[in-house]
Amino acid sequence: MSEQLHVPTMAEFMAQGKQPEVLFWVGCAGSFDDRAKKITKAFVKLLNNAGVEFAVLGTEESCTGDPAKRAGNEFLFQMQAVTNIEVMNAYEVKKIVTACPHCFNTINNEYPQLGGNYEVMHHTQFLKSLLNDGRLKVEGGKFKGKKITFHDPCYLGRANGEYEAPRDLLKKLEVELVEMKRCKSKGLCCGAGGAQMFKEPEPGNKDINIERTEEAIETGAKIVAAGCPFCNTMMTDGVKGTGKEGAVEVMDVAEMIASAGEL
Amino acid sequence: MQYIPNIIFLFLLVAGIGYFTKNILKVIRNIKLGKSIKEIDNKAERYANVARIALGQSKMVKRPVSGALHIIVYVGFIVINIEVLEIIIDGLFGTHRVFAFLGPVYDALIAIFEVLAFLVLVGVIAFWLRRNVIKLKRFWANEMKGWPKQDGNIILYFEVVLMILFLTMNGADLALQNMGADHYTQAGSFPISGFLQPLFEGMSEATLILIERAAWWIHIVGILVFLNYLYFSKHLHIMLAFPNVFYGRTTPKGQFKNNETVTAEVKMMMDPNVDPFAAPPADAPAPEKFGASDVMDLNQIQLLNAYTCTECGRCTDECPANKTGKKLSPRKIMMDTRDRLQEVGKNLDANKGVFVPDNKQLLGDYITTEELWACTTCNACVEACPVSIDPLSIIMDMRQYLVMEQSAAPNELNVTMTNIENNGAPWPFNQQDRLNWKND
């Protein structure tokens, strides 16, 4: 499969004197985490399939600084931000798409004050726009009629008010969308945000991802749809932790669309 | 002699409002201890927020039961205050039901006041039951023990007593009107206190006047006492909710504030023309402290937030950390901030307006690092607050102090940050391998 992926870099575009339609910001998880890499590839397949002229920064990409800022290290965050902004401004980047809500939020909301002004889209928003423009076909395929619940990523939902794009895509897959008790603006965090992903949780009586996974399982859904690589990890761990491995699957919305179309 | 009641009334009114004003000025002074805020933008949106969220209670009704009950008490409170205006005029000038000349309008007004007073009574009793009999979990959390629990109940008792006095006053008045007593003009319509009439049956005119006057006086004195109670209570929200919503954030919740001091330093680092060995000028101000360890390091909006919080606990009830047994409670963050600010204020009062260091601060003495590091920055608390309070911003400022002033991040986070610094990723992967996924 991998040889079919077409992943040009910004440097290659520039060498040809061209500008891509959009920069795909892969993010650290999407680049390095084994589970998240699958999401990255699924999204690239969809972009290739829709004929989107995109590019990645490749080795010129660096952490947006989100975990540093949320951990309280404003200095490290701004160093990361300013460096990334310099790279993107040099490439005259106008439009960015990313499959990570944390990257999405940081670049969209926190880079402008440091000189980085771009149109930033979450990959579910971007896929929806491709769908609306008739560039992408989404069909139910193997998900048709299946019970599926969507876990709202905090940094897409509450942080940026986007609740509908991922749900619209799921509806296009003709799934039976069931909502958890705490959804949309009341959605419960997976437990990864605010740099919690990189540390042990503080003492308590339960892990947040277990609490959330139990809620997802209660809906009777066989697939938990996610829109964030960190939520994906937390929920996948939660499924293991609740002994539902094999019975319940955690999938990114992009992966679902790609596998429904058998890309 | 006949003016003695009017003079007493004037004295009570001036004393009540005067003492309240004195305390409110303290609140304002304390809020101003915070960092000043930049010019306020998006004014139109802010006024719209006040109309929708504060006046319109749009976020209260996200929880339908407490929302509906609150609207009853809120509308009752605002509308019945028109009656207080009449009481004040009557008290000052010795008139009785001075607005009676409005005729049918007056009848309608009094009828509305009575129905609302009854509904408020029902609402307040329901609130009391929720707190004390049903024992809703959020009212029994750790931070609610002792005074906060008492405070919540005292406010409800005040309201019950005030409403009962109001209806008693009207009931006795109606009985006197029916009796044709002097001074008690036929005015008003009494749909609720009408039902109380059997209680007054057989009483003499003198007894009825005594009851009516006593209820009238205790009612207005009660209102003044209640007004002055606000400062000592969580109940200040009935006033501060409005400015607080006005100053609430209008930017996306995911946008955390940019630290300008850091930006200046980062820009200097990136500027090739800056002399790296330059010493700061002799008269340069001391470098600004990063983040917050005490209330003075917070900004004025955050301090206004603290005074506005009425401890409803919706934030804590939605907090993923709190829900899973962690120590963090966003409500406690707000209560701690307010309590420390009050302590600082008392320090100022005791020392002629100069703060004398008391070897205490918000961090450590009130809020522990364990609470701060439990936050997932998910914004559920911010979303849940019916009056646009932002506990998350305080948590973030305190984390910034811990990391940038004290280098006191949990060790795993230090490793993460070192990775970001060296490899451009939170994990120890080489930046040169960032595109390897393509060929996996």
In short:
The complex is a heterodimer of chains A (263) and B (440). Chain A is 43% helix and 11% strand.
Structure overview:
The complex is a heterodimer of chains A (263) and B (440). Chain A has 263 residues and is α/β, with parallel strands linked by helices. Chain A folds into two domains: 2-131, Rossmann fold (3-Layer(aba) Sandwich), CATH 3.40.50; 137-260, Rossmann fold, CATH 3.40.50. Chain A contains eleven helices and eight strands. In chain A, the strands form two sheets. In chain A, strands 2-1-3-4 form a four-stranded parallel β-sheet. Chain A has a four-stranded parallel β-sheet with strand order 6-5-7-8, with helices on both faces. In chain A, helix 10 (229-241) links the parallel strand 7 and strand 8. The radius of gyration of chain A is 18 Å and the shape is globular. The relative contact order of chain A is 0.14. The mean pLDDT of chain A is 96. Chain B is mainly alpha-helical. Chain B has two domains: 4-31 and 63-246, Fumarate Reductase Cytochrome B subunit (Up-down Bundle); 289-429, Fumarate Reductase Iron-sulfur Protein, Chain B, domain 2. In chain B, 60% of the residues lie in helices and 0% in strands. The longest helix of chain B is centred in the middle third of the chain and has 33 residues, at 147-179. The radius of gyration of chain B is 28 Å and the shape is elongated. The N and C termini of chain B lie far apart (99 Å). Classes of the chains: A alpha/beta (263), B mainly alpha (440). Chains A and B meet through helix 2, helix 3, helix 4, helix 5 and helix 6 of A and helix 9, helix 12, helix 16, helix 17 and helix 18 of B.
